[in-house]
């Protein structure tokens, strides 16, 4: 059976639910379009999974409202027919949303009867299903998708994704009261460990920053980790790849980390891909992730996961370092950076993290090395230089900062806005800078209604290879 989970972007949730609803307020309703992410085989269960992400909220016109009270809401289905038409044109999944201001989120017998008729209409129109979402006044959320007039699938989880990450599970996950997690439970509560145990986290790049990120996630109690890196361990990596030993030289970095995590015995399930992040074989794993840590040192990989974060509503926590050795004219220039990218915030390109020209050159070097070398000789591309300096204490410190951003998203310890958008740590100046960036006008990634929550499109991520 196909599993289902639904992501509602924070900016869409703000349109759907008033911040302080009165318990005696009348129920309200709205429509949505959701982008679909079809996962052929879940990495861990090996079963098909459908992940839906909010793409657009559509108000029900006042003229369509019939009546509402604290325990019911009814409206004309004229707008519903338009919704189905919009869904067909956009290739999206239609959804109806209503609130229970004075209660928790549940589906009533009346909901079952009404939705059966709407689902039958949707089926006849040829859309792939009809989603129904209920928002409780206590903050709870329930959701399901009608795949036929008499058949529905209840969402395993519904997550509200923005600066904060708030997960609602249909059923309790496996016990997270392990003794080794007791000290963090005392700080953040049992719900923190429960959420961590349910998370699927992808780490892209398993070198100086990715290796400590992966090991920290496992120690925290993250239930499922997916590691992606195409490299093997070189002798020069021994100074900063956590878990590595001299006999591991030549071994895939992802396998070294898998071995170390499994040796911990903390119940973390690890799957690896020794592959380039743009390989088709890693797409299902990336699309399944609740968080992605970008620990790659290239522009091309960053460009790819940057787009993926916006199309699928997956928070991206990107880590980078820029270290320049001192010379006779200047002191050391030592900088570490953690940037969070997700719908509603500037992307890595608008934040100045990614160099699009260098990304193109890196793709050329990887896919057409002869052409790359020719252009390099003709000075059309920059080409590779000496390896960048790297020191384990600095790479590990920024890995910790990055993982703390995920903790801030789950717990809110930074405040209601959750994750910090952009932090630059300047060790040479002994300070942190919090840089504000704006979305560029016309940016097709972060300033586009089309890409936000778009889900699966052809070509993948609307990128021509």
Give an account of the 3D structure.
Residues 26-138 form the JAB domain. InterPro entries: JAB_dom_prok, ThiF/MoeB/HesA, ThiF_NAD_FAD-bd, Ubiquitin-activating_enz. GO terms for molecular function: tRNA threonylcarbamoyladenosine dehydratase; ubiquitin-like modifier activating enzyme activity. The chain is an alpha/beta fold. 29% of the residues lie in helices and 26% in strands. It contains twelve helices and 19 strands. Strands 9-8-7-6-2-3-1-10-11 form a nine-stranded mixed beta sheet, sandwiched between helices. The longest helix is centred in the C-terminal third of the chain and has 20 residues, at 392-411. 43% of the residues are buried.
Task: Please give a handful of descriptors for the protein shown.
29% helix, Cytidine Deaminase, domain 2, nine-stranded mixed β-sheet, single chain, eight-stranded mixed β-sheet, alpha/beta, 2 domains, Rossmann fold, 465 residues, 19 strands
